[in-house]
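Hi Prof. W.,

I finally got the beta-N-acetylhexosaminidase prediction working! I wasn't sure whether to trim anything, so I left the full sequence exactly as given:
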Amino acid sequence: MILIPQPKKAERRDGEFTIGYGSYLVLDESCGPLLTKQAMLFLDALEEETGYRPALTRGKGRDGDIILRREEALGPEDVLGQGYTLEIRPEGIILTGGEKGLWHGMQTILQMAGQQGAVLPAMSIHDRPDIRNRGFYHDVTRGRVPKLDWLKKLADRMARYKLNQMQLYIEHTFLFRDFSEIWRDDTPLTAEDILELDRYCHDRGIELVPSLSTFGHLYKILGSKHYSHLCELEGSESMPFSLRGRMHHHTINVSSPESLEFIKGKIREFAALFSSCQFNICADETFDLGKGRSSGLKESLGIHRLYINYVKDLCECVISCGKRPMFWGDVIAGEPELLKELPADTICLNWGYAKNQREDETRALDAAGAVQYLCPGVCGWNHLIPLYENAYCNIKIMCDYARKYEAVGVLNTDWGDFLHINHPEFSIPGMIYGAACSWNVQPPAWEEMNRQISILEYDDSTGQLVGMLAKTQELHGFTWEMAVRFKELKTGAAPEYDADHRQYLQEHMESMEGVDEKNRRLEEITGELYGLLPHMDRRSRKMVKKYVIAVEGIGLFNELGKVITKWDYGAEYDVMPDTWTLSERLEVWLYHYKELYRSVSRESELGRIQEIIVWYGDYLRERR
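And this is what came out:
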């Protein structure tokens, strides 16, 4: 029996219990409106697994029933109030816990029913999480704006694995009032979308926390004619667009009172849509701070004083909205003692994405008295398939730090960077790594974790799917980021980054070593993926095509890399692709990629991805 996250204590007993079509789900009288709603959601999901739906009632249960008993105090070990006990006996099921614990216990029953159907083995489970807040952070700005239906499905998957917090990263992809110049050419989320998603998440035990970029990373806002005068660097409205440039410029001018009032207005408008008691102001990677219009203040106050004064003002604005402020901790980690100047209980989001992420920043922030979340990543950005091994190692070690330094939460991140090329559904294994590692101090080892996810999430009876996909990590030759940088270098998109692009490309050319063998292995993986179809539930088979498209894309970019490194860097290969044939294959692949993209995302910046692929089609035809 596979259960993710792994319960603290689970004992198999003699016998089994059958959830019959005449069984009842019985709520005790202390179960309020939220638990009643969640019981209905549970029954909807149970019907998907068994083909029928037990009746719902309130009162005292009988033999053959599933009984929910609300008890807020399950003992001194359940300090977070999210624990539950689950007793499955031949005569029925008794699930006991507080409001949050009962919801978690329902997910355990659903995971069991997904594997066993209506006949569940007798068991005694005592379970509780290690960390109070276990979240997932999804970038909905730099490339993709997901469809609302997909965000709801994401919330469903999060709930199934007992995650309880979601954040969406937004710079400009929300339809603010009086903001038409910013979203006129985009497909932004609306206030109605947020209100609906907030309610949907709440019903599923998930806190939807507002997250809004308020300091750096404001390229589209500060590059507009209307708001460019608020940018730290002058002339931002005439800066040439580049994917590299939008990641580094467009920091707001903190020396202007108008800047502060403008951002406060956006915070107030956005905060009003959320039932959450928290608000993430981001405030990370302020690369241009003090280099332009605020340089005078920098000389008199210093860069860190400039930073903390502005962040403090924003935190106070958040508090005035009735919410607890959060912010990314990369800048403050350089002067952690300044944390004492922020309002009490401000949460520092301490991120780091290395496979063997160092402990230094976490230790320093803890010594300064920071209230921390540890924030690892699913390692999907700039790759068609995430780097699953890197993600597992990074997430596990960051969750270990969270326990060691008594962090109040873990927020597992899924960034978009250069247009969010990876299909969002491919981040689900990384999301599950985060759920498993933040719940239990000792999750399964990586290979076993992949086997369990393959079976439980993808209905792959062989248990091979995720491990098979993880092999692609070593098979990237010419990556998406290399493709973006090479195009920007060749087209002169942003000359100030030419030297940076050259250095990056030179440093990463070694990934092209053994590229023909890499592509041979990618072809093998494609065959293995198709071979999994008879071993997968029909509901999950659609994932195979999605992954095959991604695997094919990795191989096509590897072939593209051969042409580029031969023509522009003098590399030699035994076999070269026909460039016209490769251009056609790449363009046919783009057609299928766009179809996949549109299945879960609004149009957003798909056109920029298409522009890059089309440019490479022309590049290849010119080199025949």
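Residues 383 and 422 are 6 Å apart (CA to CA). Does that look reasonable to you?

Thanks,
D.
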